[in-house]
Design a protein that fits this description.
- 80% of the residues lie in helices and 0% in strands.
- It has one domain.
Length: 351
């Protein structure tokens, strides 16, 4: 818990400093005038749009679950998704959120291997969508690559995602190789924990092998009898990112700007690639400074700072707030269930 508090504080501090820096460097008399003329109804619409993305995400996860013949209600699925956004927002590359979604699915009677396949499938659909859009984004914003730092960050993100994709595909193709590597690593680490752990390690390896088989079988199902669920997952991915990218358009409209929708979408595709780099919790600092650099192409300098502030508040800080509240609800519900089970298990005494 202490580690999570440090991540949360660190991500908020880095984000606040980055936004303050951008706002301070771009704030002038025109910024004050823009704030006076702001159309709050568009900012509110952007917030509602982001909230709706939680339900679209829940529908996507539900579609992938149905492809593996597991049925979970949309509300329960949305609850799992929302609660995961908090941990995703305070861990590098959103890794914590994915682990929490796997845990949430496993609590709904989905084997961990299959739950992992669903969550990895979601991440893969996101990656395919973003990287499919990347050539068009680069074409629309071609001049931006003249910046050396941006070019280096973009190349690093591309290489990292490509390497992970190669390992993922190899793992699907050769599950026995994954088991072999896992066994080798475990055999190297086990001696550090003493001989008494031999039985525990053997049991753990049996569990890991079983979950790897579940994962491999799940991926096979997605591309055979689960194709319909996969199709709906792809459709929800397209809708999800369209909704998320539209938030910036509404923010700029609220600030009396008339942005090009294609330009705004292209900028956010590039930003999504940069934010893959697992350098800071929740990509804090990288997101704000990257947004300032990319948005400056089509956003007036006088409102650049408040644009980044509004965009980051709606797409990141709102996740921390709503995701944190939902996480507390989930923890509270778990405590109530445990108490009910405990009360039921108590022996009845006749009087």
């Amino acid at each position: 818990m202490t580690r999570y508090k440090k991540w949360l504080i660190g991500s908020l501090v880095i984000s606040a400093v980055s936004i303050a820096l951008v706002t301070g460097l771009t704030f002038n008399s025109e910024t004050v005038e823009a704030l006076r003329r702001i159309k709050l109804e568009y900012i509110l619409a952007a917030a509602i749009l982001h909230i709706s993305s939680y339900f679209i995400w829940g529908l996507r996860t539900r579609a992938l679950c149905k492809a593996l013949r597991y049925r979970i209600s949309v509300l329960k699925m949305t609850e799992i998704v929302i609660s995961s956004t908090f941990l995703a927002g305070i861990t590098p590359s959103s890794a914590g959120g994915e682990l929490l979604r796997v845990h949430g699915l496993s609590r709904n009677k989905i084997p961990i291997g299959k739950a992992t396949a669903i969550v990895v499938g979601e991440r893969l659909l996101d990656a395919i969508f973003i990287f499919s859009c990347l050539p068009f984004a680069l074409y629309i914003l071609g001049d931006i690559l003249s910046n050396y730092e941006f070019d280096a960050a973009l190349l690093t993100a591309n290489v990292l995602v490509f390497v992970l994709l190669v390992f993922f595909i190899y793992g699907i193709w050769k599950p026995e190789k994954v088991k072999y590597v896992t066994h080798r690593l475990t055999s190297k680490i086990a001696p550090f924990f003493g001989k008494k752990t031999d039985a525990a390690v053997s049991h753990l390896m049996e569990q890991i092998d079983r979950e790897i088989d579940h994962f491999h079988d799940s991926i096979r199902v997605f591309f055979t009898e689960g194709k319909r669920g996969l199709f709906w997952g792809i459709a929800c991915t397209f809708i999800f990112w369209t909704v998320e990218f539209s938030i910036l358009v509404l923010i700029l409209t609220g600030l009396s700007q008339t942005p090009s929708i294609l330009t705004a979408f292209a900028a956010q595709v590039l930003l999504a690639v940069i934010m893959v780099i697992p350098a800071t919790p929740g990509a804090s600092g990288i997101a704000e400074l990257g947004a300032a650099s990319i948005f400056s192409i089509f956003v007036d300098s006088s409102i650049l700072g408040i644009t980044v502030l509004a965009w980051r508040t709606l797409t990141y800080h709102m996740n921390l707030l709503i995701g944190g509240l939902m996480s507390l609800k989930v923890i509270k519900d778990m405590d109530i269930i445990k108490k009910m089970i405990g009360d039921t298990a108590e022996p009845q005494h006749n009087t």
